[in-house]
Amino acid sequence: MRNILVLGAGRSSSSLISYLLNHAQAGDWHVTVGDFAAQAAAEKVQNHARGRSIRFDINDVEASAAAIAEADVVVSLLPAHLHPLVASHCLALGKHLLNASYVSAEMKGFHAEAVSKGLLFLNECGLDPGIDHMSAMQVIDRIRETGGRLTSFESFTGGLIAPETDPDNPWRYKFTWNPRNVVMAGQSTAKYLQEGKYKYIPYQQLFKRITPVQVPGHGNYEGYANRDSLKYIDTYGLADIRTMLRGTLRNSGFCASWNLFVQLGCCDDTYEMEGVDKMTHRSFIDSFLEDRGSVPVDQKLCERFGLAADAAEIRNLRWSGLFSDAPVGLSKGTPAQVLEHILNKKWKLDPADKDQIVMWHRFVYEHQGKRKQIQSSLVATGTDSVHTAMAQTVGLPLAIAARLLMQKKIAAKGVVIPTTREFYEPVLAELQQLGIVFSEE
Q1: Are 248 and 374 in a shared domain?
Q2: Are residues 205 and 303 in the same domain?
Q3: Which residues does the UniProt record annotate as the domain Saccharopine dehydrogenase-like C-terminal (predicted)?
Q4: Which has the least CB within 10 A, 170, 212, 302, 358?
Q5: Within a 10 A sphere around the Cβ of 96, how many other Cβ atoms?
Q6: Mean pLDDT of all residues in the chain?
Q7: pLDDT at position 1, please?
Q8: Predicted confidence (pLDDT) at residue 386 exceeds the cutoff of 80
Q9: Would residue 407 count as lying in a domain?
Q10: Is 128 left (phi over 0), alpha (psi -120 to 50) or beta?
Q11: The predicted structure's pLDDT at residue 37
């Protein structure tokens, strides 16, 4: 019997594993789920007749090779830096590999050998990157086919919370993805193209320079630029485009508040702080401010940034407990680790919480001498803290691609991302059937 091996049973795996198990009988395949925490893998399989769980440690070379040798297709949801290790096994054993992470330079280096062995190493096939590529290319190809010339493309995606979730949360945000990635986001210079000019935003300015986004029927948002929008100019075949910007979406007001953490240095991960075991939330913030005796931390913060005492940024930090005397609860940590730990106390999804994915594209193009515009948006809401919209939109594109590959409906070989018609047409069509639908105007 053919076998699909899924590596990783974390929060983004539930929809992918359920999909593959639900299609296992019709597809005549078996699904093996491997995770360092064997219990997590077992919970995802739930004694399914065509599933099994194993303990998987990529650093155990012999056991990893043995598990991968039994598979036809490997789907990796491991941390991105581990994908090259998985890819090395897949190359040696002749196995296809699919993942949702950005293509690294190391992964690109496997391209020629993967092609020579007839293997598909599909990357960036999740939400962002993934659905963003496919939905963008579907519209871009349609514009080209009707004789249009694209002059501007902007795209923003955010993992947020549904309006009914935690209504008193002024950030309108919780951790729906890896919390560390959220705290560390944007810590290199963002690069993009605007009106034919190359633009650069250093980390210190990133959350000050935002793009307003309005999604019909859902409200106003703000976007900040991703690290590198320029590399997708060639990927999308847009050599003559004048504006190319990809970024992350947040609810209005988030970026101004988060910018306080950035300017203070709270997101620094390069050194360990002293006395973390005795630190409170308030003393953590105070450690980045000048010593002024008995002046309250919130007052010093207002004076440092020229804010009123009732400014939204101050209210957001107060709601998050940053001015409280609660103990941090760590024995040691970098500023970024301490901040993540503090925020997770209020930002962790409760069982009944619903997350919400919002994706927005704007295409500006010329057609028969006229300037035209298309705005395309996707809004998907989760069911609860386990069956999240994030898990659906990250996992289902990968799962659909794995099914298509098992059915020999994908011909691509080598290290690729899903920007061609053979990927985006069937994947987007099935996602629409599953309720993940774009609206255009």
Answers
A1: yes
A2: no
A3: 126-436
A4: 212
A5: 24
A6: 95
A7: 72
A8: yes
A9: no
A10: beta
A11: 94
Pair (249, 277) in one structural domain: no
Are 375 and 441 in contact by the 8 Å Cβ rule? The answer is yes
Residue 8 and residue 98: Cα distance in Å, rounded?
13
**Residues 135, 106: one domain?**
no
Q: Averaged over 244-268, what is the pLDDT?
A: 96
Tell me the residue range of the domain where 57 lies: 2-123
Tokens describing residue 367: 């057609």
How are strands ordered across the β-sheet holding 29-35? 51-55, 29-35, 2-7, 73-76, 96-99, 120-122, 414-416
Per-residue pLDDT reduced to its tens digit, 65-91: 999 999 999 999 999 999 999 999 999
Residues 6+ away with beta carbon under 8 Å from 339? 183, 261, 266, 267, 284
Residue 127: pLDDT above 90?
A: yes
Lookup: tokens for 151? 């002059």
pLDDT at residue 12, as a whole number? 84
Nearest 5 degrees, angle CA 409-CA 413-CA 416? 100
Angle made by CA atoms 275, 279, 284, in degrees to the nearest 5 = 105
- How many residues make up the chain in this entry? 441
Assess contact for 344 and 179: CB atoms under 8 A: yes
- CB-based contacts of 284: which residues, under 8 Å, 6+ apart? 266, 322, 328, 338, 339, 342
Both 198 and 250 in one domain: the answer is yes
Give the pLDDT confidence of 198-218 residue by residue, as tens digits: 999 999 999 999 999 999 899
Residue 104, classed as helix, strand or coil, is coil
Burial grade of 18 (CB within 10 A; 0-12, 13-18, 19 or more)? buried
CA distance 135 to 377: 10
* pLDDT greater than 80 at residue 336: yes
Given a cut of 90, whether residue 187 has pLDDT beyond it is no
C-alpha to C-alpha distance for 182 and 391, rounded to whole angstroms: 16
Mean pLDDT calculated for residue range 238-263: 96
Q: Which pLDDT score, from 0 to 100, does residue 361 have?
A: 97
User: What CATH number does residue 244 fall under?
Assistant: 3.30.360.10
CB 209 within 8 A of CB 189: no
pLDDT digits (tens, 9 = 90+) for 408-421: 999 999 999 999 99
* CA distances from residue 217 to 220, 416, 439 in whole angstroms, order as listed: 10, 35, 11
Count of domains observed in the chain: 3
- CA-nearest of 203, 177, 146, 155 to 10 is 177
Residue 412: inside a domain: no
